[in-house]
Amino acid sequence: EEPEQPEQPEEPEQPEEPEQPEQPGEGVEEFEASFNIYPNPVNDKLYIETLTQTQTLTMEIYDIYGRRQVTETLSHQGNLIIDLTNLNSGVYFVKLVTNEGEVVKRIVKN
Description:
By secondary structure, the protein is mainly beta. It has 1 helix and 7 strands, in the order αβββββββ. It has one helix at residues 28-32, and strands spanning 35-38, 45-50, 57-63, 68-74, 79-83, 90-98, 101-109. The strands form 2 sheets. A 4-stranded antiparallel beta sheet has the order 4-3-6-7. Strands 1-2-5 form a 3-stranded antiparallel beta sheet, with no helix packed on it. The radius of gyration is 26 Å and the shape is elongated. The protein starts with 27 loop residues before the first helix and ends with a strand. The model has no long low-confidence stretch (mean pLDDT 81).
C-alpha cells in the first residue's frame, strides 16, 4: 500500500512589491536648486534668492575654521542681501536651513 502523498499547498500569491523608501540623497539636488547664491566670488554684497515657498530660512556664514560670522533669518520667499564688507578675504561656507532641510554652499570673498 502506497503512503498517501500530502497535498502540495498552493503557491501563495506574491504580494505586490512594496514601494521602495526614498534612497538617502534623493531630492538633495532639488533642494539645493531651490536657492541661488550670487555672485561668487563676492566682493561686498551676497544675494540669496529663494526659489520656492519656505516658512523660515536661516542663513549662517562660517569661516573655514567653523566659526559663525553672520546669521540672518528670512520668514518668507524672497531675497536676502547680506553685507560682507566686514569679512576678510577668503573661503566661507553659507549654510541655509529651512523646514525642508539644509544645504551648505562654498563661497569666496574677494
